[in-house]
Amino acid sequence: MPLVRIDALYADRERLDALGRAVHDALGEVMGFPPDDLFQILTGHDGVRGLLRYGQYLGVRRDEGIVLVGITLRAGRPSGQRRALYRRIAELAQECAGTEPRNVLVTLTENASIDWSFGHGLAQYDEGAGE
Q1: What's the DSSP call for residue 49?
Q2: How far apart are CA 26 and CA 82, in angstroms?
Q3: Tell me, what DSSP letter sits at residue 122?
Q4: Res 129: pLDDT
């Protein structure tokens, strides 16, 4: 936990790997997730079989270097930590993958402990899992 989905336009395997590392490292640095807590879906879109649509919402000038990062995690992180995460992901995406920070859109989706199963059909985070 968390589950990360990264979608990038015209991204090859190398760029996707770099973006995945950037997000994983930011989650570790800012939110304290351990290194082996790695669950990512990395998808490159070629503009033909896969496409990303984007606008200039809130005056941010995005282009074909756009990267959409969706992170699902358990609820409870304070606003300051979330802001630090967004900033660190943008910094590392630029450092690791050459992605301009203006092209990094991040969303967090929170849920409860019962909403996770890491295998064996069990809800490992649920306090009542042994019942």
Answers
A1: S
A2: 11
A3: -
A4: 54
Q: What is the full per-residue pLDDT of the chain (131 aa) written as tens digits?
A: 899 999 999 999 999 999 999 999 999 999 999 999 999 999 999 989 999 999 999 999 999 999 999 999 999 999 999 999 999 999 999 999 999 999 999 999 999 999 999 999 999 888 665 55
Q: Where are the alpha helices (DSSP H) in the chain?
A: 13-31, 79-97
79 to 3, 76, 85, 104, 107: CA distances (angstroms)? 19, 9, 10, 19, 13
CA dist., res. 58 & res. 6, Å (int): 21
Alpha-carbon span 91 to 100, nearest angstrom: 9
Q: Cα separation of 36 and 38, whole Å?
A: 5
Distances (CA, A) of 128 to 110, 118, 122: 20, 16, 11
